[in-house]
Design brief:
This protein is α+β, with helices and mostly antiparallel strands and 503 residues long. It contains 19 helices and 24 strands. Its EC number is 2.7.1.17.
Length: 503
């Protein structure tokens, strides 16, 4: 039997999963870490925490499985996108990584747009300059921390820093590179024009591979730290969304995923470069050669429920610790006690600004319509509903671009919640499907590793062999009017308050 490993460097923790060649989970380990917010809207992490979590989770997975590491044929890497990991010429980290949800670089976005030109930026990078992307973060360091900027020799994304520690190679792949604003998305290579016009050095950027291609092999030092066999191949992998899409089988026309992780993403496959001229959704390279994807992003999806749990969920956390039950299970049960629509209580999930459709780093979260009649369960349910309203914003734009939507598959932590899936079915007015694996990005990059090492002939073949539909939740037509009314109110709230966010 051959085995594959998928490593997903997430925002809240690193998850490592060992799969057999049929896609079955053999062992899994997650190691959590913190996110620092030095100022409102800022978000940073220490790359060393990612590496420690990777080493620990690999050792735990190998130990749990009891397999011979010689049987591990390949490793795939996934991770949070858009982060800026800056290294000096010796490969040392120069500062904490500024990660995807950081909003400090709005002025740099304007500067980049002025330098490149909005139309030219869309033409080259397929996206406007947004605070979430890597380029504005690097430009912020250039302006505000010149003593660090002058030492830069390498710019890496989070998963690619782990690749460097595992293999000693500076490399990335097309799906994650698409979210830097440095990549020519149509041609699937770095844009020298963008990089040089911004006063950066293209030599700082790593080599770009297709996602299934072997980009390096586990080095001796990493083997000693992780328990892996020296020489084990490591493939390009994918940004968490492209990787999760592969792990969810979103590799053909008509298939769409709705993922609720820390952020929320509606992801659609396309075999041609399809761009929203307003830049409200992202067009990136998919993890399959000569294909692309369009995705809408809401910044504060699962983050919103985690914020509630951490700040107001004392009872649920206490019950969870006493019973060995995830606190989110109790929160789901509370939300089920509330009537759909929550008596008009609407939540805007803009805790870290917002991308789709508003592109507004200044946006803030809002509870609207709160009355003395509302109870705890309505507030929790309104968070679930507000996140889904935001995901519907994404879905409506994708449909408007002419991209077919024939089946929606739920994934991410929120995809494991039956009530959250049902709310999606009711708000989207369409069936919500689950598949036989909930491992998402880790499975996706493990399959890419299987393709890169010859276990499968293509990504589509790998997905067809491993991924099966297991459940379908149908929309409740009796709730269409309730949710349509609340969604229309939801879409009216942001325009009504957006000017107040900057006060």
């Amino acid at each position: 039997m051959s085995y594959l490993i998928g490593i997903d460097i997430g925002t809240s923790g690193t998850k490592t999963v060992l799969f057999d060649e049929r896609g079955n989970t053999v062992a899994s380990s997650t190691v959590e870490y913190d996110m620092a917010q030095p100022e409102i809207g800022w978000a940073e992490q220490d790359p060393e925490d990612w590496w420690k979590a990777t080493c620990q989770s690999l050792r735990e997975v190998i130990g749990k499985s009891g397999i011979n590491v010689d049987e591990i044929k390949g490793i795939g890497l996934s991770g949070q996108m858009h982060g800026a990991v800056l290294l000096d010429k010796d490969g040392n980290v120069l500062r904490s990584a500024i990660i995807w949800c950081d909003q400090r670089s709005s002025a740099e976005c304007e500067e980049i747009t002025d330098i490149i030109g909005y139309g030219r930026l869309i033409e080259l990078a397929a996206n406007p300059a947004l605070t979430g992307f890597t380029a504005p973060k690097v430009m912020w360091v250039k302006k505000h921390q010149p003593e660090i900027f002058e030492k830069i020799a390498h710019i890496l994304l989070p998963k690619d820093y782990i690749r460097y520690r595992l293999t000693g190679e500076f490399a990335t792949e097309v799906s994650d590179a698409s979210g830097t604003l440095f990549l020519n998305v149509k041609e699937r290579k770095w844009s020298r024009e963008i990089v040089e016009k911004l006063g950066l050095n293209i030599e700082w950027l790593p080599e770009v591979y297709e996602s299934h291609v072997v980009s390096g092999k586990v080095c001796k030092k990493a083997a000693e730290s992780t328990g892996l066999k020296e020489g084990t191949p490591v493939v390009g992998g994918g940004g968490d969304q492209a990787a999760g899409a592969v792990g969810n089988g979103i590799v053909k026309k008509g298939l769409v995923s709705s993922t609720i992780g820390t952020s929320g993403v509606v992801f659609a496959y396309t075999d041609k470069v399809t761009i929203d001229p307003k830049g409200r959704v992202h067009t990136f390279c998919h993890a399959i050669p000569d294909t692309w994807h369009v995705m809408g992003v809401t910044q504060g999806a699962g983050l919103s429920l985690k914020w509630w749990r951490d700040n107001f969920g004392f009872e649920e956390k206490t019950l969870g610790s006493l019973t060995g039950t995830d606190p989110y299970v109790y929160m789901d049960k509370e939300a089920e006690q509330a009537q759909p629509g929550c008596g008009g209580l609407i939540y805007l999930p803009y805790l870290m600004g917002e991308r789709t459709p508003h592109l507004d780093p200044y946006a803030k979260g809002v509870f609207f319509g709160l009355t003395a009649k509302h109870r705890r369960q309505e507030v929790i349910r309104s968070v679930l509903e507000g996140v889904v309203f935001s995901l519907r914003d994404c879905l409506e734009i994708i449909k408007g671009m002419g991209i077919p939507v024939e089946e929606i598959r739920a994934s991410g932590g929120g995809g494991r919640s039956r009530i959250w899936r049902q709310i999606q079915a009711d708000v989207f007015k369409t069936d919500i499907v689950t598949i036989n694996s909930a491992e998402g990005p880790a499975l996706g990059v493990a399959l890419l590793a299987g393709v890169g090492t010859g276990l499968y002939s293509s990504v589509v073949e790998a997905c067809d062999a491993v991924i099966k539909r297991v459940s379908v939740q149908h929309p409740n037509q009796s709730l269409f009017d309730v949710y349509e009314k609340n969604y229309r109110l939801y879409t009216a709230l942001y325009p009504a308050v957006k000017d107040l966010y900057r006060l």
